[in-house]
Amino acid sequence: MKHINSLLLKSACALSVILMIQACDTEFSEIGTGIVGIPDFEIKNRAYPITTYNKKITEFESSNIGNNLLGCYDDPVFGASNVSFVGQLIPKSFSPKFGDNAVLDSVVLTIPYSTTTKEGENGATEYVLDSLYGTKPVKLYIYKNNFLLRDFDPSAGIDDAQSYYSDGSLTAGQSIETAQLEGDLLYYQSVYFPSDKPKGLKTYNEETNAYEVTSTLTPSLRVHLYDHPNNSNLPERFWEDLILSKEEDAVLSSLNSFKEYFRGLYIKTEPINAQEGHMMQLNFSSSNSNLNLYYSYGQTEDRSQGKYVLSLSGNNVAIFDNDFNPSILQTINDTSTDFEGDDFLYLKGGEGSMAVIELFPRDEEGNAEAEQDFKNEFRDIDNDERITPKRLINEAFLEFYVKESLHNSDLPNRVYIYDLNNNIPVADFFFDQTVNTTSLDSKFTHLVPLATETDSNGVEHKKYKVRLTEHLNNIILRDSTNVRLGLLVSSNVGLTNLNKFKNIEDIQGVPTGTILSPKSVILYGNNSPDTTKHPKLNVYYTEPNN
Known about the structure:
Helices cover 14% and strands 40% of the residues. By secondary structure, it is mostly beta strands. It has 2 domains: 7-59 and 323-544, no CATH class; 67-146 and 183-314, no CATH class. Strands 25-24-30-20-1-34-23-29-28 form a 9-stranded antiparallel sheet. Strands 2, 3, 8, 9, 10, 14, 15 and 18 form an 8-stranded antiparallel sheet that branches. It has a 5-stranded antiparallel sheet with strand order 4-17-16-5-13.
């Protein structure tokens, strides 16, 4: 996938922002030094109105993400969604020698779940499925895929990679046909639900003439595809003919030959009962994500064990199938992008929806008077265009209140905000070094997790808080552009790579952390009937008492 923000680009952007701020911040820091608590200075606050409106998340690039969702998730407000996976298998070695009298013993597919660990009783390590959504089992199908996931786009430049999108389409307008995805049915389980228990792996001990547990595998989707009772529809000797019998064949001699010959696996789920199921994040890029063919070879009295390993490191695509609530979809499509804003903001991950935020929005004639007035409040500019701060921003933040009568009970814990003009995080993201080492989640100062506040009447309200202090400093002190901001749910706010939209209009795409979450939330917009919950830009600042 051609992610817009590679790791290198993000690192360069972060370094550039930090160096720029360090280089320009001397004057600002000197004015702020030691002023808090001094009688000649006073801390004040002011709330500035903003405009917020909805946008649909349309089809996006969904190939080679690394982690992928799999399963069925029914959102009682937004509707049901289903995510399946198709991926190539890559041999760890080519032109294999299986030995004399090779006999296949088993075929095992392993894909680790996304997990974290915690300390259990007696100090034992316990695993937590940190990206499991829903509590009901599903039907699980694994097919031999017959669709070639090619590397390059024949309709584009000679070295342009082929793009695959969340609706199962390609750049050239071609679609991945279901009939090609669903080749031979390799495995079926009528009741499947992931387990958080690690799995002991056994090897054969020739001295004891027995299998013994020699290693432990983290919780994983681990299924036997050979000689399974549910595989009765497979041709006899299917796996032997597919792999072991091809020892001298060119199809096992090179990567291109193999990818053309065995085009990978297609994994999908179906709900057992309507409006039930679960969705799980799996680590397809893990070194433990593979298909292992275990076999024995040699003479009858002196047999040896062999293993042929196929990794899931080739091209892969996540395919999203959504049954979006028609009334919510109509509301989003009717959204106001002029100067009013929307009543409520509908945020949903995956192929869902997002919100756009405009700070100091322009008026109906397109004038930016609100932005200029704000700048004039906080700075002076002399004849040489040198900027002198008049006020020190102590903290600036947005707050978004949850419309609690209209939401799924399983609310997302995090929301993410980013610069829609440049497709990068805002400056506060790079300044925030807070990290949760157990979950690999981060940025808790900039992007405060879902919280509950209690008002003066004892009523609780759920809300998200987004700090934008450095973002505003850049606008005031460095004349940075007042860009539009995108607000989305996220499974992990550190996953900021942008997945491009298939049909790009005014927004380029959405970050990976959003497409890896099926969760949703409805927030109050700036045009909602309850004005006390309108999102506002809250600014706390210090200024001299003249």
